[in-house]
Amino acid sequence: MHCTRKITNDIYWVGANDRRLALFENIFPIPRGVSYNSYLLTDEKNVLLDTVDFAVSRQFLENIDFLLQGKALDYLIINHMEPDHCALIETLAEKFPEMRLVCTEKAASMIRQFYTLNMDDRIQTVKEMDTLDTGKHKLTFLMAPFVHWPEVMVTYDATEKLLYSADAFGCFGALDGRIFEDELNFDRDWLDDARRYYTNIVGKYGNQVQALLKKVSALDVQTVCPLHGPVWRDHIPYFIEKYQKWSTYQPESSAVMIAYASMYGNTENAAEVLAGMLAEEGITDISVYDVSSTHLSSLVSEAFRCSHIVLACPTYNAAVYPVMETFLTDIKELNLQNRKAALIENGSWASVSGKLMTQKLETMKGMELLAPAFPLKSTLKAEQMADLKKLAGTIAASVRQSEQ
Ligand code: FEO
């Protein structure tokens, strides 16, 4: 049975949810599932904006058939050529032989890479500010390269003041019938997944997101239709403000993230003691994570949220403990910047993790180490408690300063 929702008089959500997929992109856990959003504009010309993943193709095709009622699909606009959105292009091209494909030049070459069916004579490439009239609606195309693939564009419907935003403003999580953000408690139930989605998938491309936000700010946008997650009608400035922070690598909260690696609980103990000292200093937003048991995507997301990051880690094979090394490499690759940091190193002999973590942080823009790495030799000793308390005081003072 079809399962669609009306967005405006002429525009329908024809996407579908996947609650079976365990790992998005075969890497990110999605315990709440994910939605693949596609939108059908019914006008003098019928236009579909993006398709969906193969996994939900049956529902998607039923949705389109129901709304078209035997009429032709005239255009497929391809804002993004990643397979979770472009999987059904060939299927639709065969089903609707007159359908034209509207996309960027780069997307056209990706169509040739992904598909064997030759669709060249049906491809209509567009550039910045090109338009498409569909009858009542006029669509304008805005290039959004690397948000988050190079071929991406977004589409603006001036008639409805509606932006089809591709991956921008997307979110993990299946839609439980409520496809509009104003039908949900986004800040309470969805923000963490939105942050985890953005930081891990788009996080590297802050400059490109900034360029898109600048273009969007020049438009009158009253509805945002992303390729994943809820559609935005209200509270658009709330989400744009989050994007401003994330894409400029500014912390969202004055908060301390303590990420520790610990083989036998001794480095963990020091992390716990420091967390308690920070609480006694009056810091309220403190979170402690074991890097070995917390998914990397959650660690990354939390690093983007918090103003202060403490890394506690043993030396392992004359290097940084591997899981911590992976975390550090990932936040560097994702361009995380502008954080205050502190380190705890542990080594029963030949300790180098503090030095190596320091070197890694020094290669990242705007990272400020608040103190030299705090040294542990196997375990935290009573005579070190005063020094650890001093470190907690330094971190707490810096957190308070970041609140001003
Ligand atoms: Fe949901 Fe970049 O694809």
Q: Characterize the overall form.
A: elongated
Question: Cofactors and ligands present?
Answer: MU-OXO-diiron
What count of helical segments does DSSP give?
13
Strand order of the largest sheet: 1-2-7-8-9-10-11
Q: From the helix content, strand content and strand pairing, which structural class follows? A: alpha/beta
Largest sheet: 7 strands, mixed
Number-wise, the strands total: 23
Query: What separation lies between the terminal Cα atoms?
Result: 55 Å
Q: Approximately what portion of the residues adopt beta-strand conformation?
A: 15-25%
What integer is the average pLDDT?
Answer: 98
As a whole number of angstroms, the C-alpha radius of gyration is 24 Å
Q: Which residues form runs of ≥5 with pLDDT under 50?
A: none
Please estimate the helix content.
25-40%
What does this structure look like?
With 404 residues, the chain is an alpha/beta fold. Helix content is 34%, strand content 23%. It is built from 13 helices and 23 strands. It has a seven-stranded mixed β-sheet with strand order 1-2-7-8-9-10-11. The longest helix is centred in the C-terminal third of the chain and has 19 residues, at 385-403. It starts with a strand and ends with a helix. The model has no long low-confidence stretch (mean pLDDT 98). The structure holds MU-OXO-diiron. MU-OXO-diiron binds at residues 80, 82, 84-85, 148-149, 167, 227-228.
